[in-house]
Amino acid sequence: MLVSDYRVLVTDEGDGIIAFLNNEIMSVVLILKSNTIAKEIFDKYHDQLSAFKFKYYAIAKWIVRDLRKEGFVFKALQEYPSVYIPVYYNKEAEHAEKEKLHWFYYEQELIRKKLSDISSNNKY
């Protein structure tokens, strides 16, 4: 996978964009201004672009690194697969949901067993 030609920009609406070429296809990480945590991280590094002599690769790498540290993952939009949005991922919530499903399945099996016992006892 060849990734090159990075650009870090701000749109007229105030959203942050990290644009790059991925195997000769233009891809974009879109950081919406409504996502306050992600936008704050983006702004912190975007403001330093001139100090780093517009080294877009380094700035983009730091933005992505800090977003991942904060717990964000990058999801591609279904209608536009080359546009990625940072989405907060909560491992504890997913684990709790899996635990709930496990107990639901266990209770379902207990009910099934009781129903089969009742139906087998009622056959005369």
Please provide a written account of the structure.
It is a single chain. The chain is α+β, with helices and mostly antiparallel strands and 124 residues long. It has two domains: 3-89, no CATH class; 90-124. The chain is 45% helix and 27% strand. It is built from three helices and five strands. It has helices at residues 36-46, 56-69, 91-121; strands spanning 3-10, 16-22, 25-31, 72-76, 83-88. A five-stranded mixed sheet has the order 1-2-3-5-4, covered by helices on one side. A hairpin with a 2-residue loop joins strand 2 and strand 3. Helix 1 packs antiparallel against helix 2 (56-69). The longest helix is centred in the C-terminal third of the chain and has 31 residues, at 91-121. The N and C termini lie far apart (69 Å).
Provide the spatial order of strands within the biggest beta sheet. Answer: 1-2-3-5-4
Q: Overall 3D geometry? A: elongated
Strand content range: 25-35%
Class inferred from helices and paired strands:
alpha+beta
Write down the domain tally: 2
Order of secondary-structure elements? EEEHHEEH
Please give the largest β-sheet.
Answer: 5 strands, mixed
Low-confidence runs: none
